[in-house]
Amino acid sequence: DAKTTQPPSMDCAEGRAANLPCNHSTISGNEYVYWYRQIHSQGPQYIIHGLKNNETNEMASLIITEDRKSSTLILPHATLRDTAVYYCIVRGSARQLTFGSGTQLTVLP
Amino acid sequence: GAVVSQHPSRVICKSGTSVKIECRSLDFQATTMFWYRQFPKQSLMLMATSNEGSKATYEQGVEKDKFLINHASLTLSTLTVTSAHPEDSSFYICSAPKGPYTDTQYFGPGTRLTVL
Asked: For residue B26, what is the DSSP state?
């Protein structure tokens, strides 16, 4: 599975959009981009995933660049409860997930 | 979303004892489940893949005789930490994909193991 690079930490003001970047320059054609988050001392929570097209669900939007070498997770109106570590994972044929170090997002009041 | 539960949520045991952690898929069947371990301020590390009706497959460096995995039914996998030592203290988390044709994983809430 392709390796991902994320900033270690980011801050966001409550009510504003949180844009979390992820670089996956070695991604191959059949690999999906998944996003999970982990609130402190809890199991990870699935957020969204995509292959090439932009995706949106009730939690977030996923924007994947045309060359698929990077993506951005957007939380449109961040709340304090969105404070968590966000993991960007590229997954190929293997079913298991390989977690990197993620981005600690802190939503500030 | 799918629901995965773990029991117990937290356990404290003495060094040398064995501890069993259960992972259940509550509203779906899971032929495959995954076990992860997370040390403080670190990311999740995959320990093993639990397969219903067959032996688990372990990641490199994980002792299969120490971390016994049993996937006896389509909704239950258990991880037994045998002869636990303080260095086994960690956060253990299981996950399962909801069905054979999806790769979206649903995670349990985790089990905090403290070995004294």
From this structure: S
Sign of CA dihedral A25, B99, A47, A104: negative
Three-state secondary-structure class, residue A11: strand
The 10s digit of each residue's pLDDT in A51-80 is 998 999 999 999 999 999 999 999 999 999
Contact list in A for residue B21 (CB cut-off 8 A) is none
Q: Between the CA of residue B52 and those of B15, B87, B91, what are the distances in Å?
A: 30, 29, 23
Q: What is the dihedral of CA B101, B107, B108, B113, to 10 degrees?
A: 130
Could you tell me which chain A residue has the CA closest to the CA of B40?
A41
Cβ contacts of B91 on chain A, cutoff 8 Å: 41
The pLDDT, as a whole number, for residue A29 is 85
Q: Which residues of A touch B (CB under 8 A)?
A: 32, 34, 36, 38, 41-46, 49, 87, 91, 95-102
